[in-house]
Design brief:
Blueprint: H1 3-21, H2 34-41, H3 45-57, E1 61-64, E2 68-71, H4 90-114, H5 117-133, H6 139-155, H7 160-172, H8 174-188, H9 195-207, H10 211-232
Antiparallel strand pairs: 1-2
Helix pairs in contact: 1-3, 2-3, 4-6, 4-8, 4-9, 4-10, 5-6, 5-9, 6-7, 6-8, 8-10, 9-10
């Protein structure tokens, strides 16, 4: 590789690293193929391969034979989460909801400021689909749909730490989050009143780019669910 090609490779690596750092490419998301990157930046495939290799050496991506190049969750190796088996513990469920209120409030705040129009449209599609499915979904499906909606908001925050921690948090503590809804449904026999309207208000605040309001509504939404949990005990 010539010195010029090496400089071009370094520049491309820096551009892609910036996109990863600011959440344009989310953890777990595939980078564009080498062919696409070659065309987009008018570079040779060799130059693109060298840039991808540099990202691998930095620990930002992993390349799988036949599976493309995936962005890594940079927090995963640094977090020692509590052991499994706490999903049905009431006190732990309360702690999970307390953390969700803080996390999702910040995610909504930055999403209102930074989400692209395309991301807002996809969040809107997911919101509408979630409302249409809510009457027939199982408790498990409702829990998954709710987290998918909030994860999309986190991804739209373009804050790498919010995105990365949200992924780890939701995956690690899904049983506790599901348990909150299951406990509430068993106690009251219905999906908590007000949840549908709260989702609508959060989505509208995002559309209107009202960051402070979006933060408030997202946090209150989780606090409301936590209160339902506490009333079910």
């Amino acid at each position: 590789m010539t010195k010029q090609d090496s400089n071009l490779s370094s520049k491309l690596s820096n551009k892609l690293q910036q996109k990863i750092t600011f959440g344009d490419f989310c953890p777990g998301q595939k980078l564009p193929s080498q062919r696409v990157l070659s065309q987009e930046y008018s570079l040779s495939r060799e130059t693109v391969r060298e840039a991808i290799h540099d990202l691998e050496l930095k620990g930002l991506v992993e390349t799988y034979h036949g599976g493309g190049t995936l962005c890594r969750n940079l927090l995963e190796s640094h977090f020692e989460m509590p052991p499994e088996g706490l999903g049905e513990n009431f006190e732990f469920q309360v702690q999970v909801m307390e953390m969700r209120a803080a996390l999702e409030g910040e995610a909504a705040y930055y999403a209102a400021l930074r989400a692209t129009d395309e991301q807002l449209e996809k969040i809107g599609q997911e919101y509408r689909a979630m409302q249409e499915r809510s009457s027939v979904n199982t408790t498990l499906a409702k829990a998954k749909a709710d987290l998918r909606f909030h994860m999309m908001i986190a991804e739209a925050s373009h804050n790498l730490l919010v995105i990365s921690f949200s992924q780890l948090f939701y995956n690690r503590f899904f049983n506790a989050i599901y348990g909150v809804l299951d406990r509430t449904l068993k106690k009251f026999g219905r999906y908590p009143d007000g949840i549908r309207a709260q989702h609508a208000q959060i989505y509208q605040a995002l559309l209107n780019r009202e960051a402070t309001l979006a933060r408030k509504l997202a946090a209150e939404h989780i606090d409301y669910t936590r209160k339902q949990l506490e009333d079910s005990e």
